[in-house]
Amino acid sequence: MDEFDSEALSLLQEIQSDFRTFHKKLTRRLAELEAKLDRAHSELVTHIDSIHQFTLGESILGGYATAKFERRIAAIEERLTALEERR
Length: 87
Hints:
Blueprint: H1 3-86
């Protein structure tokens, strides 16, 4: 093997070593980002579920309030009808 082939082989080995180091760092960084993204997604799902539960609770409470109001109005209308019929 002549000197040029030897230097080329040495350079290729150095590039290969650098690439392996880069690949390891990149793989580790991607794993860290994936974990961070998973945590963020989990937090968002939790927040969305909380908002959904809150709005559902508000809807249920609103429904109870409306039903109670409707019953009271119906009772008043019945009494009014009864008073009008007495006249």
